[in-house]
Design a protein that fits this description.
With about 270 residues, the protein is of the alpha+beta class. The chain has nine helices and ten strands. The radius of gyration is 21 Å and the shape is globular.
Length: about 270
């Protein structure tokens, strides 16, 4: 499932294709939304904002379309009215003179007034967004020590969108590795230095992933391995998906474990359980 950096990349692609251009047609598959198609046709998209894994498409008449892909939703950008061959069901489409943005399979779509976006039940429950440039490590350091979070294991805490918005499975493992924190530890088990490293990594790792097409490993290491012909899956991450292979820092074999049915990876030396 895509995480915050991938959702923001998708929004960037959509903005490039359909923003700041008058719409030729806006289509909704759901009957209760169909009347909005006419209201949004001829309008201009001003921006597409992201809230973790949700997108909000802003139109210049003050209306917004909230969409969440859930497990199966998928955005596709094509030439105008050039539909792909697929068994998926088209749920929402924005057509401009040159491009069409097509949302397939998603079931969570709403039309809101701009002032209602912040009060949407999903958005209202979100924690700080890892890609929000106004969020600082100092903010995260204070947040992770708050009563709501400091006694919860990082393995579950980091998948709670009410803690950090946009973190998913691969970012969880990568943030904890860079922080040098064992996955089963809680914030209350960590000293001040560990929590400070966590606060830095919680923002730096996702932002690097966004800026460098999903690479969370040290960029110099990744570039060297790429030049040597290593496949992307081998050099992309520090630990995620690398069980049985050597840690890039100490050489120890990376381990894989599960909690709540979700896999995570760590180095038993760099992230010692002590």
């Amino acid at each position: 499932m895509p995480e915050g950096p991938e959702i923001r990349k998708a929004a960037d692609k959509l903005e490039k294709a359909i923003a700041r251009k008058p719409t030729v047609e806006v289509f909704f598959a759901f009957d209760h939304l169909k009347s909005y198609g006419e209201k949004l046709t001829g309008q201009t998209i001003t921006q597409i904002s992201t809230y973790g894994k949700a997108l909000v498409t802003h139109f210049d008449n003050g209306l917004c379309v909230y969409s969440h892909n859930q497990l199966y939703g998928k955005w596709i950008v094509r030439k105008a009215y050039n539909y792909p061959s697929t068994n998926r069901q088209l749920r929402f489409a924005v057509h401009t003179p040159k491009k069409s943005a097509l949302l397939y399979s998603a079931s969570d779509i709403e039309v809101l007034h701009a002032e209602e976006v912040a009060e949407h039940p999903f958005i209202q429950r979100l924690g700080p967004d890892i890609l929000d440039v106004t969020v600082t490590p100092e903010h995260i350091l204070e947040w992770v020590q708050s009563k709501a979070f400091y006694r919860r294991r990082f393995t579950t805490l980091l998948l709670d969108q009410g803690f950090l918005c946009g973190v998913g499975n691969y970012l969880r493992s990568e943030i904890l590795f860079v922080s040098r924190i064992h996955p089963t530890h809680r914030p209350t088990d960590c000293d001040r230095d560990q929590l400070a490293r966590f606060a830095d990594a919680a923002l730096a790792v996702p932002r690097q992933s966004y800026q460098h097409s999903g690479i969370t490993n040290d960029l110099a290491i990744a570039e060297d391995l790429k030049k040597r012909g290593w496949p992307r899956r081998q050099y992309r991450h520090w630990v995620f998906g690398r069980d049985g292979q050597g840690c890039y820092v100490c050489g120890t074999t990376i381990l894989k474990d599960r909690t709540g049915g979700r896999r995570y990876y760590y180095c038993p030396v760099c992230q010692a359980d002590s």
